[in-house]
Amino acid sequence: MDKKTLYLQAYRMFDRVHPLRFNCGRLCDQVCCRGTDTETGMYLFPGEEKLHQSSDFLTITEANFRLNGQPVLLATCNGSCPRTMRPLACRIFPLTPIITPKDILLVKVDPRAGGLCPLAREDNPFPIRPEFKTAVRRCFAMLIRDPDIRAFLKEFSAELQLF
Ligand code: SF4
Ligand code: SF4
What we know:
The protein has 163 residues and is of the alpha+beta class. It has one domain (3-160). It has helices spanning 3-12, 25-28, 88-92, 130-143, 147-160, and strands spanning 42-44, 58-67, 70-77, 95-99, 105-109. The strands form two sheets. It has a three-stranded antiparallel β-sheet. Strands 4-5 form a two-stranded antiparallel ribbon. The termini are far apart. It binds iron/sulfur cluster (2 copies). Residues 19, 24-25, 27-28, 30-32, 93-94, 116-119 line the site of one iron/sulfur cluster.
């Protein structure tokens, strides 16, 4: 499957599944959609940029580090987007997939989200829905059949040091 089709399929998996039953943006005034810059933009997964080449709401830049030998691409926005085309990182936030050294796919709260997202805090009174975690796991079980995405995620996981 080509990358565009693969990511469109991944995007659709989050059309109806969200972290909470209500819009979690009400808890924080949508802080994760504010204040992005080239240091704090969303990662694009390998080949995801192909879906956004003519985007008028995302700016794509290269981060100053590489994963799997390729520069990591960061997307930033001005705080609004057509919801159907928001990047995968926005859809899964504040969770992240990781692949352990034993090659097991897990879904964790992204440690980088802790200072920003109320759902990522230890005292969060609104547990993230199991359905959402399952959707993230299913999505990445599909995506890591692609060797580029698997290799990226393995290196990314080692960087996060969550195991
Ligand atoms: S994912 Fe977290 S930071 Fe983003 S809107 Fe929901 S609660 Fe706020
Ligand atoms: S692309 Fe959309 S969902 Fe993602 S940070 Fe920007 S406004 Fe929020």
